[in-house]
Amino acid sequence: MTIDKGNSGGSEAPPNGSSGDLPPPQGAGGRRAGGSSLIEFRIDPGSGVPTYLQLVQQVEQALRLGYLEPGDQLPKVRDVVTSLAINPNTVLKAYRELETKGLASGRPGQGTFVQATLSQVALPELTTLRRTLVAWLASAQAAGLDEDGMVAVFTSVMRDFFKSPGRTTTAGGRSEDVA
Q1: In terms of domains, do 95 and 143 share one?
Q2: Rounded to an integer, what distance in angstroms lies between the CA atom of residue 37 and that of residue 28?
Q3: To the nearest whole percent, how much of the chain has pLDDT over 90?
Q4: DSSP H/E element including 105
Q5: d(Cα 53, Cα 14) in Å, to the nearest integer?
Q6: How many other CB atoms sit within 10 Å of the CB of residue 63?
Q7: pLDDT for 46-71, tens place per residue?
Q8: Domain harbouring 13, CATH code
Q9: Under a CB-based contact definition with an 8 Å cutoff, are residues 61 and 12 in contact?
Q10: Rounded to two decimals, what is the model's pTM?
């Protein structure tokens, strides 16, 4: 998924640890009042995850990160179909799922708009967390881990972290220590 955060210029760092911005989104992008693209869907056919669900997950991720907010327009179905060469029913199914979850709503003749948001981390904290993670990725790469190895380590540590005694997860997905 490519995300353009509008005026901020984007802080998505490339996986190699350099500090470059993401390329500007092209193709099927959601729009804000100025007409700038907010999100471009990407599909991974080898992931084993149904295409419609990949679209839903990408919108949810953009909401969690604060890249999409209530009132933002999701890409029009025809734009997604053209950009990704997928069946319109797949996009419609994804948008219906977002509506069912209360995250989006369709407006006849206008498109689908974000209706709600998911828990977010404030931008300064998110920026600091991203920098720390990029530094960790660079260290992991220097130690000889490839992308799959990094994912395995991260997933294992995250699983252990949330399963540790005295730790609970709140409804918003945040972890809290229980005294």
Answers
A1: no
A2: 8
A3: 54
A4: strand 104-107
A5: 25
A6: 22
A7: 999 999 999 999 999 999 888 899 99
A8: 1.10.10.10
A9: no
A10: 0.62
